[in-house]
Each structure stands twice: as C-alpha cells, then as structure tokens.
Amino acid sequence: MKEKVVLAYSGGLDTTAIIPWLKENFDYEVICCCVDCGQGEELDGLEERAKLSGASKLYIEDIVDDFCDNYIVPCVQAHAVYENKYLLGTSMARPAIAKKLVDIARKEGASAICHGATGKGNDQIRFELGIKALAPDLKIIAPWRMTDVWTMNSREEEIEYCKQHGINLPFDASHSYSRDRNLWHISHEGLELEDPSLEPNYDNLLVLGVTPEKAPNEGEYVTMTFDKGVPKSINGKEMKVSDIIRKLNELGGKHGIGICDIVENRVVGMKSRGVYETPGGTILYEAHQQLEELVLDRATYEMKEEMGNKLSQIVYEGKWFTPLREAVQAFVESTQEYVTGEVKFKLYKGNIIKAGTTSPYSLYSESLASFTTGELYDHHDADGFINLFGLPLKVRAMKMQEVQKTQK
Length: 408
Known about the structure:
- The chain has 14 helices and 14 strands.
- By secondary structure, it is α/β, with parallel strands linked by helices.
C-alpha cells in the first residue's frame, strides 16, 4: 500500500502541478485538502481539477466560523496589528489551516503533509510551525525548497509539466498579482507593487471595494453592539461573527475603507511590499477600540497595548500553537469582561468617524470631566498630587544645579 500525503490544495497552478510531481518523485497517494476560510468563488470546480490532476480524493473543509470565532476574535480583542498597519489576514488563517490539514492527515493515516508555499515567504514558517506543534511525527514536504527535485521556475514551465502529464487546464501563463483571500481580507503582491516608488494601480488591483475617491459622496451611519468584546449586531440585527464580517466588508468596500499599502518586514529577513484590502476588519477593529476606550482603566489599557503588539508578532511569526500565545490571549480575554455596549460611527470616503458610544460599564463621568467643580474632585487636591508626581523631576533639577555650581 502506498504512503499517503495530504496536500494543501488551492486549485491554482502551483498546487495543481505538485500533484503529479508528488506521485512521480515519491510514489505517494495524494489526498488534496482545500480549507475554506471564506475565499468564495475560488472554490468552484476544485474537485474535478484535483482528480483530473491525479489526486485520489479531495476534501473541502469549511472552517469559516472556526476561523472567525477562534482566530479573528482574539486578535480583534487584542487590537493585534503588525507594524502598525497589517491586520494579520493571512497570518491568522494559516494556523487554522494547519490544524485542519493535521486532522485530515490523521483521518487518512497519512505520513506527510505537503504545502506550496515558497522559500522566500512567511507562509512556509506558519504552516510548518503549526504542523510541528500539532503533529511532530508527520513529515513535511515543501517542493519550492527542494530545488534538486522541483526544477520548475516559471508558470510556463509548470503549465508544460502539467501538459506532459495529461493535465490540460485553462491556466494563464501571464503574470498577475499574487493574491491570498479569505473572509477577513485579500492581499496583493507582485507587478508594479514590487517597486516601492510606484503607486498601486488601484483600478486593476482592488477586489473588495473602491478607492475613497470613488466612494459615495454621502456618509453612512452604522451602529454595532458588543458583548464582552465579541461583536453581536449591526444596525439592530443580531448575527454570528462571520456574518458580521461579511456585512462590514460590504459596507467598508462601498465606502473605500481599509486599503493599506505597506512595506513590511518578513520573518525571513527581507522587506516586502503589499496592498491589503480589509474593509470589514478595519471597521471592526476601530469599533471595538471605540468601546474599549470608554470602559478600560488607564493602566489596563496601557498593558493591553503592549500585549496586542506582542500577539501581533506571535501570530505573524506563526507561533499560534504556543504557551506564550495562550498566556497573552488569556490576559486579553480577562480585559474583555466589561467591554459591552453600543458604538455608532459614520463611514465616509475611507474614514470611520465616531458618532457616539454607550456602555453600562462606562468609566467616563461627565461630572468629573466637566470644568465645573463636583463633589468627587477638589481642584486643591491637584497641588499635592503634582508635587509628588513631579518630585523626581524636581530632585534631579536641583541636583543638576548643584553640579553646575561646583563646576564654575
């Protein structure tokens, strides 16, 4: 009986060419697994394509709700943003995909998992760290790093290889943007984006929305509710998290929200440029933070910012299945106990403009914040506070005066 390998299958040219390559070079039985994270129409016709290419079986595994509830929500609650811009769309999905690949490998009794990530990117790290953490006994095959066996270096060569193995599919040899899509976002790399001096060709590039210039001239008000940091409704209609993201994607795309052009530092050491469309995610992050600033105390808010930055690094580097991620997430979850309430905002030409926030746990006191003197705040108390708060500065200044005198 042949050994089995589970191939992370997208239906694209790379992973389609890998099927006959695995059979020819390793004599594996190839089990394809396409993990649905909300990439939509990209899944059409995959089963026919996989079997035509020589796979014995194709799994299409829908993990959209798992992805939203167990990977996206913790990152939203932490306000995890990599290098101040990237909302981790691909990074969050990879551990969820790795977990499902391991599940299928166990179900099929496979001895290996294969992925089509290149040797220059972050995804090879994310997939393999996830697999190693969950199934250290499974072999990992990464064709793009096996240059002695994987000899194809262009789309033309891959298409010719497929034809030689009886696979005649309508793949286009022309180069286009390299994209990754799921429910949360779509990323774009390649073509003019490889030159940071050039402006992105947004007319050809954008998939989920429009530029702010092409957005409606009239703003749109949106109301959202949260319960313990989890989004619950939009404009009075309760929905599960995945449907909330779908609706926010529609609203955000319409109003030119969430287009990010970034040069980021990859884990492997190089800089790369990409454009990310995250319309719904950008709104969700902003709405959650709008509520948090009303209910979290200053010290917790400061520490949570640090933990959010740490979580973004952990997720970006593929270290989801680690004790550190669990510990950071546990801290963040403890801060969400009172992140309950309603936020209102206006979407207008790429902007998310606050329009009111309420919460039964609001720490904002109008009587304290106003310029009138209330019972809880005596202006005279500030004298002693400032004296003590500024004491280290004053002591140092006095000491420096002494030093300057002795030096004259």
